[in-house]
Amino acid sequence: MAISLTEYISIRRLVAVSNDEIWWEDNVATGSMTELDTSAYPIDTTDQLNIFEAYQKAFVVNGAKLGVADFINTKLSTADIRPNDSTNIAPLHGTVLTGGTSGATMIVDYCNAVNGAALVYGFTTSGTFDEAGEVITGTNISGDPTAVSFTLDALPVAPPHWYPWTVYNNDEATYGVMPNKAYLGCLYNGRTVLSGNPESPNNWYMSRQTNPWDFNTNATDDQAAVAGHSSDLGELGDIVRSLSPYKDDYLSFGCANSMWTLFGDPRRGGAVRELSLTTGNFGANSYCWDNENNFYFWGNNGLYRTQIPGNPQCISQFKLPRLVKTEAASPLTHRITLVYDRDRHGILVAITALATGVNSNYWYDLNALDEQEIGAFFPESYPATCGVYSGVYYDSNTPSLKGMLLGNTDGYIRVFDDTVKDDVVGEQLNAINSFVCLGPMPMSAIPQRNGTLSGIDLTVAGVQPSGDADDSNDVDFKVYTARTASKTMALATANTGPNIAGTFAGPGNVRGTTKRQSVRAENVVFRLQNTAESESWAFENMYAYLSDSGRKK
Amino acid sequence: MGRPVKIQFPLLGQHKGMATSKQPFATSFLMNNMRLYDVLDKRARGGQRPGLTAWGDGDLIGDASNPVVAMCVVSSIV
Asked: How many angstroms away from the CA of B3 is the closest CA of chain A?
């Protein structure tokens, strides 16, 4: 028997926001982006803005501008959604509509009016609504009357669409009231969640389950909308800065000085418990999860990690103490974005000055855990044009487009590419200033004595003769010595006046590589670096030739 | 020549929390744009980080004077 399989896939698309514009990936094979027309309901990217996926749409949360980029529904237009008030009614969410002449069918998702001119958005399940003048009918599951009948006054419009996010039918008497402003949003347990309302910054608002258009909290069923805040009983509650849903299991509220977690559904046995009363979360996107359900966030004292439930641990405290003070980042002036890179198994912590794009970043590598199970911090810097303002791991249907995407200062989306040795800005190649300081280390094996460095030998990646893509380029070195370890560190940090300097030729270890210059001191630091355009390097091994040279004087 | 002393690359990243004379094994007090895995042969030996380059078709989102402030991925069946 012949077997025929028809592959049925969902399409993942990237949506990006910049310059008061929303762009979407119209060609998922090449990663081509196209602007979505938002002119009828413009957004403002000079204000805070967040975006989340729900129900095959992107919900945009931009203060007073709450909008929907809809990638699934067909738009129908009518001059009168309820032509006869005694026998007709506007369709409900979920009503099935049928075209009188085309026979096309649609499941209604959203309708923006209860009477008069209206737009109806729904998923077309069969056929095509084909012409203006077609009469559309259906029957609501409840209400009185239940008959839906209206006439199209324009051709149906295929997705995508952009429209205001309001309650269903714009009928606040039936579907409740959304907050006047919101800057935070997410999808949790089938509910669209809003928070960051300046009028009530400690509160959160959840729509009805499976219906992002219903915010009526007066309904009493388990799926009805709900609002609340996260605090101990009787307390006002902290200002919410982030919403961090994890599947449908729990939702963490990152507040200014505390963290709270909602377990389960608030309408059905859910519970809010404190995650931490000693740290909050920096901002809307200052969190991520790794592949082992560990929750990371930038808190009051640096980078934190926890499982939920659990107690957050400041994992930067020991290795990078006073990190928050060093970075001097404020939510008013900086954006901190955390993204877990599934491919490289690490977390990018990007700290960017909002006004300039000047940045300070850390690659937190989960491949190099120490005995306390804490990963390795690798500081990084990018050109100001490549400052990170947003990030997402994109599991594209097209393998070559998968990866950790970074939304940058100059309006481009970038990725880390192992084959690229510069930071590319248009036609300009920006050399990566990469360096590492090794040490400080005592030069004599006997404590409190001087030593002599008589030679250095560095082997870099690759083999002679050069020419392969995996060959390392040359590496510059500088040697700093001093009486104390602190002094050598200060000298190496200043990067001026080394005792010895030179270049190790790559790739591999060229004959005669060993540098035979000598210097006598108590402590030494080696600084290796490459600052050249279109070059990269990797360390293989290194030896220093040291001997005792007597008492220090 | 003196005795050869092997110099370890800081595979455990940056560490600034101990006494200056007690720099922990396989850490560095100062480094930048280096990572554990090198990009040349993908080995955990230390190397320069990968470069940043435009994703996909390299489209400019908006204009060059405004950052990409938000992104998300939407799955749909059409």
From this structure: 5
Whole-angstrom Cα distance, residue A184 to residue A51? 8
pLDDT digits (tens, 9 = 90+) for B10-47: 999 999 999 999 999 999 999 999 999 999 999 999 99
Residues in chain A where the model's pLDDT stays below 70:
7-8
Condensed to tens digits (0 to 9), the pLDDT of residues A163-191 reads: 999 999 999 999 999 999 999 999 999 99
Q: Which of B14, B63, B71 sits opposite A319 (nearest CB)?
A: B14
A417: CB partners within 8 A, 6+ apart = B50, B51, B52, B53
When CB atoms are compared, the residue of B30, B36, B56 closest to A367 is B36
- Position B6 scores a pLDDT of 96
Query: Which residues in A lie closer than 8 A to residue B15 (C-beta atoms)?
Result: 319-320
Give the residue numbers spanning the domain of B15: 1-50
- Total domains in the fold of chain A: 3
State the Cα angle at A54 between A53 and A60, rounded to 5°: 55
Residue A526 belongs to what domain range? 434-551
A509 occurs within a structural domain: yes
Same domain for A439 and A544: yes
Question: What is the model's pTM?
Answer: 0.95
Residue A410: what pLDDT? 97
Give me A32's structure tokens.
Answer: 């081509």
* Residues of B with Cβ-Cβ distance to A23 under 8 angstroms: 59, 61-62
Could you tell me if the ipTM is greater than 0.85?
Answer: yes
User: Is A22 part of a structural domain of the chain?
Assistant: no
Q: Which of A11, A53, A485 sits opposite B20 (nearest CB)?
A: A485
Q: Hey, what's the torsion of the CAs at A452, A458, A464, A468, to 10 degrees?
A: -160
Residues A421 and A446 in one domain: no
